[in-house]
Amino acid sequence: MTGWNTGDIPALSGRVAVVTGANGGLGLVISRELARKGATVVLACRSEARGRAAVERLLGEVPGAAVEPARLDLGDLASVREFAHGLPYERIDLLVNNAGVMAMPHGTTADGFETQFGVNHLGHFALTGLLLPTLLATPGARVVTVSSFMHLLANVDARDLNSVRRYGRWTAYARSKSANLLFTHELSRRLAARDGAWDVRAVAAHPGYADTDLSVVGPRAEGRHLVERLARLRSRVLAQSPEAGALPILYAATAPGVPSDSFTGPSFAMWRGAPAPSRRAPWTRDDTTAERLWAASERLTGVTYEALRA
């Protein structure tokens, strides 16, 4: 992995990739680099206008790129179903579950779930499940779910998945990112249980501390302008660029030999640097916790992974 960069991404002509949250930040960089290597990239964005603007920007940077916008609101399961059912492709080689929210004031999704758990985990759980038949039919497909080093702050609470009893914005965020890793672990386990029947890998990655707008959305939503300005200043001083933050995710998505259930992040203190195996809380590999979260996620979303049932 030492020194790995976008020049090491293999040719992707004929491949189809779906990237959530692709209109800016990491998602835009990921989409650009996949398209540069020849992939057809679906930019799954909550805002149709921002999705179209992202396509125009990518076409300016990569003339002739095969990119298209599609509306996807991960905080609305009806939108997730509409998006999944509307994809016209017979193959999906790469699903990058990248979109997310961070440290938001307490709120709920359209379906009544706590926002961070609902968007970061349940929305992607439902999306992956709905796209699973196409993924299983595509040799070499990968599901890459973007977590965070902040997952180390908290495990999921099976008794209070929606943080009803007590809400802390950073605790809820950490729980949602632990949920991402537990989802990857259980998806990997269920795929492996089929004795190689499907050539699909589930992997996870994180960007370290990347300079994106993710850290300012919460303060902006609450009108905490000083906190927003401080967050921007901190990012400019301490964070690495979105291009650098996207590298671990691109590595997990495209590098040969990436093992299922792996977790890739920046090499230096989980913060910045070239892609490398990342530290991971032991609870994110706990089979019992993962199975319970999976069962709850199927119940809450109504999306069942029939092909992977024991």
Automatic annotation (TrEMBL):
<keyword id="KW-0560">Oxidoreductase</keyword>
<dbReference type="InterPro" id="IPR002347">
    <property type="entry name" value="SDR_fam"/>
</dbReference>
<protein>
    <submittedName>
        <fullName>SDR family NAD(P)-dependent oxidoreductase</fullName>
    </submittedName>
</protein>
<dbReference type="InterPro" id="IPR036291">
    <property type="entry name" value="NAD(P)-bd_dom_sf"/>
</dbReference>
<dbReference type="Pfam" id="PF00106">
    <property type="entry name" value="adh_short"/>
</dbReference>
<comment type="similarity">
    <text>Belongs to the short-chain dehydrogenases/reductases (SDR) family.</text>
</comment>
